[in-house]
Write a structure and sequence with these properties.
By secondary structure, this protein is of the alpha/beta class. Helices cover 36% and strands 14% of the residues.
Length: 354
């Protein structure tokens, strides 16, 4: 399909991607490509509050519009008024659903680009004036978002996330890591789906071995819902690790992952943040598939639990997460050894790994 011909370089661009942290992270390379192609445009992103901190201070973005759906169904009305008031001339609808299609159509923009009808839901494609070519459903979402850049014929200048922290945020990260041995590994423990979790005792085994074999610090990351998981890991390992569950923001995660030698955990939003910082990510898979969602740049460190029912894409597993049980601490540690060997080879330091 030939690139979409724009009548003029757009002046006011709206990106619609309201939801998940991992999705917003994986769409950032599209944002940076848009900025390089249209340096004079005013670029706005419509998003829900949970993922909005990822967009704070982004050098390619001019404005964020928040959709606060927790305020009830009437919250959409002031949000839509704000969308219309901006008089966008170009919309990229990355969400695929009827809700984002409604926002796109309500914007009044003369050019509205969305996913092909084969890749969208709830009649989303009907709300947009143009669609990109069909993309394989089981392909990396990051590449699916970059298909919008290809549809526009934008130059390919590589993958850039451009996540940045202010100096005071860097200081907050250093304070959180006070007393943590360096180098350290960052363990992201949870996910929105319980079916994706690994197990506390297996996690503790990996933590102990990284400490003993490589002298690494261990940082546990997660929300308040992962506090019990983290306590079980801490009880098994001792107070030699840094438990930050319930204490970090998305902004803090950027700084912590950037300082880590490696990151480790299940399919989740933090997994994609870690990858976006350039840190190698060991990712664990069972209920979902890395074919669609592997962390960028860490395909070689994917571990899948073999099970006839995997990937099931169910939120709650009725058979005790059999797939995740089949990922062993030994597999994780062997993968960590490869990660650390590669990092030391790149840095030119002699390997201390046996």
């Amino acid at each position: 399909m030939p690139p979409l011909a724009l009548p003029l370089a757009p002046q006011r661009i709206l990106i619609i991607l309201l939801g998940a942290i991992g999705d917003v992270t994986r769409a950032l390379p599209l944002l940076t490509r848009l900025r390089r192609a249209y340096p004079a445009a005013h670029i706005t992103w419509a998003v829900e509050p949970a993922a909005a901190p990822l967009l704070d201070y982004h050098p390619a973005l001019d404005e964020v519009l928040l959709y606060r759906r927790t305020h009830g169904p009437l919250a959409v009305l002031p949000f839509l008024r704000d969308i219309r008031r901006h008089r966008f001339d170009f919309v990229l609808d990355l969400q695929r659903h009827a809700k984002s299609g409604l926002v796109s159509r309500w914007s009044g923009a003369p050019l509205r680009l969305g996913f092909h009808r084969h890749n969208s839901k709830e009649g989303n494609w009907l709300f947009n004036t143009h669609t990109i070519a069909p993309v394989p459903d089981f392909s990396l979402k990051l590449r699916q978002y970059l298909a919008f850049a290809e549809a526009l014929g934008l130059p390919d200048d590589g993958i850039h996330f451009d996540l940045r922290l202010r100096p005071e945020e860097e200081e907050e990260v250093e304070t959180l890591l006070t007393g943590t041995p360096r180098p350290f590994a960052a363990f992201f423990l949870g996910s929105r789906w319980p079916s994706r979790f690994w197990f506390p005792q297996s996690t503790a085994t990996v933590a102990r071995e990284l400490q003993h074999a490589y002298g690494m610090g261990i940082v546990l990351l997660g929300g308040r819902d992962e506090a019990a998981f983290a306590r079980e890991v801490s009880d098994a390992v001792g107070d030699t690790l840094t438990n930050l569950t319930g204490q970090t923001s998305l902004r803090h995660l950027i700084g912590i992952f950037r300082r880590a030698q490696l990151a480790f955990g299940p399919d989740s939003g933090p997994m994609h943040i870690a990858a976006a910082t350039g840190t190698p990510v060991i990712s664990l898979w069972g209920a979902t598939s890395p074919v669609r969602s592997a962390p960028w740049g860490s395909d070689a460190f994917v571990l899948r639990g073999p099970a006839a029912c995997s990937p099931c894409y169910t939120r709650h597993c009725p058979i005790g997460r059999r797939c995740m049980q089949r990922i062993t601490p030994e597999q994780v540690l062997e993968t960590a050894r490869r990660v650390l060997e590669q990092r030391r080879a790149v840095s030119g330091q002699p390997s201390a790994i046996s």
